[in-house]
Amino acid sequence: MNRPSSTITAATLAGMGMTVVWGGVKTFLPEVQFDPMLISGSTTFAAALVGYFKRENVLTAEDLG
């Protein structure tokens, strides 16, 4: 199976990172209640922003031999 594009990988890692951040907030500040829309929206926004600005590594025919 081929590796996914570098943009997809970067966006996935950014989304996973935001999930860890929100998990840490919930763990260390359990009394604070956040709207689920804020959590899901910020995670999606971070992933989309990183994916948008990530420079894509594109292979050409010369790269493939």
List low-pLDDT spans: none
Find the structural class using helix and strand composition.
mainly alpha
Strand content: under 5%
The major pleated sheet works out as: none
Number of strands: 0
Please give the radius of gyration in angstroms.
Answer: 16 Å
Provide a count of the helices. Answer: 3
Distance between the termini: 19 Å
Quickly count the domains: 1
Principal-axis shape: elongated
Helix content: 55-70%
On the 0-100 scale, what is the average pLDDT? 89
SSE topology string: HHH
Task: Describe this protein's structure.
The mean pLDDT is 89. The chain has one domain. The protein is built from three helices and no strands. Helix 1 (6-28) packs antiparallel against helix 2. The radius of gyration is 16 Å and the shape is elongated. The protein is mainly alpha-helical.
List the main descriptive attributes of the protein structure presented here.
mainly alpha, 0% strand, elongated, 65 residues, 3 helices
